[in-house]
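Appendix B, record 7
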Amino acid sequence: MWIVKIGGSLSTAETLPLWLDALNCYFRGQVVIVPGGGPFAELVHDSQLFWKYDDPSAHYMALLAMAQYGIMLTGLQPGLVPATSVADIHAALHRSTVPVWLPLTMVSEDPTIEQSWGVTSDSLAAWLAQRLGATRLILVKSITVGKPIVSVDELALNGIVDEAFPDYFRSTAVETIILSDEQYGLLPQMLLAEVAGGTQVAMAAGTESVRYRTTLPFPT
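Structure tokens (predicted):
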């Protein structure tokens, strides 16, 4: 089983339907989609900056934002179905469909998950990968990473993943790959030929720089 996190930065990208088509075509019964927060989470972020309300409230609202984006994805691709629990996920996989995880229930039940902007959909995708025993985690983002291997600490330092992600990554120990929004064509190759693509996330420190193509207020 793979976990594929579709970044919120793809919410208006022309490639978004192509990603959903590829996942629905090649990965039925084999993949779980984790939605980012997209413009829904950006609204929460801006609202908190304006009104200065507490982080637990913003965290709860951000989980709802992920759910909104997830429901949007299911609306774009009929082969995708919403899933709120482990049972829902396994049932969808058993039916050879593609579950889209709506995180509110499962995350709210785990008191160890920090309620802050330091924990976004990146870390939650890694948390889910560990919970489900996934073999691979793919983070799809609207960025270009300028090397085949990058350290998790460098990613966090550059704001490409959230600040809690290195800890989740190390505790999960699942193979993690970053793909840009234009690399949807690698999916069938990665599945059928079992080849690695994109940028591998490593625990060791890297040396090459990361090139941004978009600037975001927080990882999506």
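Remarks on this record: The longest helix spans residues 55-76. The domain at 2-202 is CATH 3.40.1160.10 (Carbamate kinase).
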